[in-house]
Amino acid sequence: MIMTRPADHPEIPEEKIGVLLANLGTPDGTDYWSMRRYLNEFLSDQRVIDYPKWKWQPLLQLIILSKRPFSSGAAYRSIWNNELDESPLMTISRAQKEAIAANIADRFGDRVVVDLCMRYGNPSTKERVKALIAQGCRKILFLPLYPHYAGATSATANDQFFRVLMQEKWQPTARIVPPYFDEPTYIDALAQSVERRFADMETPPDMLVCSYHGVPKRYLMEGDPYHCQCQKTTRLLKERLGIDEDRICTTFQSQFGPEDWLRPYTVDHVADLAREGKKRIAVIAPAFSADCIETLEEINEEIRESFEEAGGEEFTYIPCLNDDPAHIAALSEVIATNLRGWIE
Length: 344
What we know:
Layout: E1 16-26, H1 32-43, H2 53-77, H3 88-108, E2 112-121, H4 125-134, E3 137-144, H5 151-165, E4 173-176, H6 184-199, E5 207-213, H7 217-221, H8 226-241, E6 248-253, H9 266-275, E7 280-284, H10 293-309, E8 314-318, H11 325-338
Parallel strand pairs: 1-2, 1-3, 3-4, 5-6, 5-7, 7-8
Helix pairs in contact: 1-2, 3-11, 6-8, 6-11, 9-10
């Protein structure tokens, strides 16, 4: 017996699989109110700042958000993509999505849909999850674009993804891509970016500084694996490059607030290196999948200035992997691996 749907039955699109890439986020503009909205969402996240709300919110709303949008807006203006009127993170993330979508289409045809969301700001996780479901995605693979797991990055992106699913009448089946910090293809992509940059230099640098975004040291003591995963990435990169132990180091940047954070701090350590006679250094940021305010402004301006003021002579910033073909291939391979059992 053939069953037919009633005439008023909702339309059911052809079933597909969604892949949702997620990055941190970006303000919509550099003006005060755009910055305030973005910073409020970001700094109100208790995965990022886990102080009790009764203690943190008055400080945030009355003091921090009355001042910081001005300084953050100025920092963003120094790197803003004026042609497209958006942050470099947005420009690069879109390019990554398009390149990954092309790679995945070559493998699986139109059965897999690749999309992009941001944890904070736009395009929001809610908007893009709903868009995937509307396209018929009954399975969604969620990929936080952080090689290393941290509560303040991967976990909060996952939280938001699941919060959105909680609002759906018919939830799609969901998978989360685990951290890929030690995947050989990712390490090789990092190494290739270093090798290309070193090949352009007359003299190799005295030190390769691997600068990772910092977190409070307390998080490590509470079980967050981020510090250990960063250390392993540096070790694997050293082994892949075949350089000596004393020519590569791990540091942490972007400290915020009064707590002790993971050390050594990049901004201080590069100055120490200069004073120790290491006058030529290169800095790479393996924890960032795309160049953003922390790399283009903090590393390439503030940290560079710290090195040079301490007597450093040659500072080289090695860009993030961005939409480099080796990076796209590595991410696409991670996606294909995690789609096993759903599609072959």
